[in-house]
Specification:
alpha+beta; 3 domains; 36% helix
């Protein structure tokens, strides 16, 4: 009895990767990955890869195979829902002339240097090495793909060395110098990344990423040793942003002795930036909420779902920077003198600007702390303060003590003094 044809709606897909480890001695670490291949070059390369895959996996002639003639870094592959791989499968399904499945090899190339389909167009960001990836996607009936998936996970990485012919074809097609080429699954790539992150004490980051990439249900939360808190749900991570004063007075720094607040806040800020940058790089949107004592208490006594609801009840921080107003004189007299203390660390750079302004009588007009929320926030803050001084005819002075300055008694940031500047000048460089 003949097997009925498989409808496109009944198809499944399973993806793999050709991992290309670049030679650091011959590759430019700031270089841009190569442009996508032409249709002819992509087709020729696809033939090499299909032959290798058949040798490693066994009979795959009954399955469809689609691959782009392009290279990506792992942050383009590992994103919530794995959209690039899903896009490849959809392109395969949409390529058929009718609604039934027919196995074929599809190689995607372009004569314009980019793909017209945005979902598979490589970003080609400078410094994307030393590992570049060429994804491929098998498509076929559900049972066949389930069997293939088990074989791929069990054998692809262990037996995944490419043939000499494919090795040469890949390097020539893309103009690369590679140390090693091998096949792997997405699971293999994730396992390697987990090992790397765990070895560098970033296992909580892996837990957040994995939850988002594979669209796990519910909420996953982590609290770091420095007091950073992250909750991931869907493709969003919710986190608390603390000014120094809030961190020291009611936040994670509250139990610390006053003398340790500076080091503690630097540790918190370092972890916050590292996690935020990594999460955004892998397609997980970071939603910052300004901490407050009531929210702090709610999070300490709630389960993850209630904590998520508490986060969502508060508008997220937007824009490039945050202004924390400590004092503002209600007389609205123009500012005549402005003292700006650059609160910075040698490793982390700018943490905040403490702005103290005086009116014409020498009375305190404003005391503020300006915190950059994005890398460009430093330049935006500087431009805003310069414009503010120009509009009011204010004399401006910027002080660089070279460290974070705070009052131990008040557990709050403070402006620099002549003693602070003298101490910085006397330090050996």
């Amino acid at each position: 009895m003949a097997t009925p044809p498989t409808a496109a709606s009944e198809l499944r897909h399973y993806a793999g990767l050709l991992a290309i480890e670049l030679d650091p001695q011959r590759a430019d670490p700031t270089g841009t990955p190569p442009a996508p291949l032409s249709v002819a070059a992509a087709t020729a390369l696809a033939g090499h890869l299909a032959k290798d895959l058949a040798s490693i996996l066994g009979d795959i002639a009954h399955l469809g195979l689609i691959l782009p003639g392009a290279l990506y870094d792992q942050t383009e592959i590992l994103r919530p829902g794995l959209p690039l791989l899903s896009a490849l499968a959809e392109l395969y399904r949409g390529s058929g002339r009718d609604s039934t499945f027919a196995p074929r090899l599809i190689a995607l190339g372009t004569e314009r240097g980019f793909f017209p389909v945005a979902a598979i167009n490589p970003l080609r960001r400078p410094g994307s090495g030393p590992l570049l990836l060429l994804p491929f996607c098998f498509v076929g009936p559900s049972d066949d793909i389930a069997r293939l998936a088990r074989v791929m996970e069990d054998t692809l990485m262990q037996n995944g060395q490419v043939s000499p012919a494919t090795n040469e074809a890949v390097q020539q097609a893309f103009g690369l110098a590679a140390l090693n080429l091998s096949f792997a699954t997405v699971g293999d790539l994730c396992a390697l990344l987990r090992v790397q992150l765990e070895a560098n004490d970033f296992l909580p980051l892996w837990e957040l990423l994995e939850h988002a990439w594979f669209e796990r249900p519910g909420v996953r939360s982590v609290v770091l040793e420095a007091g950073n808190r992250f909750l991931v749900a869907g493709d969003h991570v919710h986190t608390l942003f603390y000014t120094f004063d809030d961190w020291a007075q009611f936040g994670p720094g509250r139990p610390l002795p006053a003398a340790e607040l500076g080091t503690g806040y630097l540790n918190w800020a370092r972890a916050q930036r590292q996690y935020a940058l990594a999460l955004e790089a892998y397609g997980v949107h970071v939603r910052r909420v300004l901490a407050n004592p009531r929210l702090e208490e709610t999070l300490a006594t709630s389960d993850d779902e209630a904590a998520l609801a508490a986060f969502r009840d508060i508008p997220c921080l937007s824009g490039d920077y945050l202004v924390e107003r400590i004092f503002h004189n209600d007389n609205e007299r123009p500012e005549r003198q402005m003292l700006i203390t650059h609160q910075a660390d040698a490793e982390l750079g700018t943490l905040a600007y403490t702005v103290t302004s005086l009116d014409a009588d020498g009375q305190l007009a404003r005391l503020e702390h300006h915190y950059p929320l994005q890398p460009q926030g430093v330049q935006v803050i500087a431009a805003q303060l310069i414009q503010r001084c120009a509009e009011q005819g204010t004399e401006r002075q910027v002080l660089h003590p070279g460290r974070l300055l705070y009052s131990e008694a008040g557990r709050s940031l403070r402006a620099a003094t002549a003693i602070d500047l003298a101490a910085h000048t006397e330090r050996p460089h």
